[in-house]
Design brief:
- The protein is an alpha/beta fold.
- Helices cover 32% and strands 25% of the residues.
- Strands 3-2-1-4-5-6-7-11 form an eight-stranded mixed sheet, with helices on both faces. The chain has a three-stranded antiparallel sheet with strand order 8-9-10.
- α1 runs parallel beside α6.
- The longest helix is centred in the C-terminal third of the chain and has 24 residues.
- The radius of gyration is 17 Å and the shape is globular.
- Bound molecules: 5-O-phosphono-beta-D-ribofuranosylamine (GRF).
Length: 220
Amino acid sequence: MKADPAPLPTILVLASGSGTNLQALIDASRDRDFPGDIVAVGCNKPGAFALERAAQANIKTFVINHKDYGSREEFDGALMAEIRRHNPDLIVLAGFMRILTEDFVRAFRGKMLNIHPSLLPAYTGLNTHQRVLEAGDKVHGVSIHFVTEELDGGPVIAQAEVAVQENDTPDSLAERVQQQEHVLYPIVVRWFCEGRIQLASDGVLFDGAPLSQPMRLPAS
Ligand code: GRF
């Protein structure tokens, strides 16, 4: 008799909005050889479309509404308790628009990824597309990084570039960046689940060796 296959690493996705990155991960996870299992989707906004996408894929959902909590610490405490119930191997922030406390980030060190719409370290924070256009940059993009205490400042694992076009608006640029997000996030989540990437004390290890610069998808 064949032994049961080892259980796949479990993934919990946190989102706040429309969840197109969540959808890209759900679609990728339908591949028979995808090395991870999305076990739950959490949201801080009741009614977010990400919850609908998860429900349609038969994935458990939960809502921890930040408006129900008097402080960031209380909200993070409730979120942490819910995450611990699922005990995931990986937490994927996919458009999760809450700043997390240091305690929260420390609790899941090395197990939490974020996607940010810029070529970090450039343009941390919000409104990245607008700021790139205002600066007249020719190249923009997306980064996926391990989450550390520094906002949008954790070691970057991979990036994809997007060429800025002359007639771009923040919306048109955002759309092309998002297309790259949907390609890149499943790739990086796959690497994590395969045990290929790890957070070390001073950066990212890829296949056990320090990553001197982020992995890059070619410009689109
Ligand atoms: C993405 O553009 C991501 O880079 C940013 O928030 C957006 C989330 O979009 N952090 P969606 O909810 O995945 O559609």
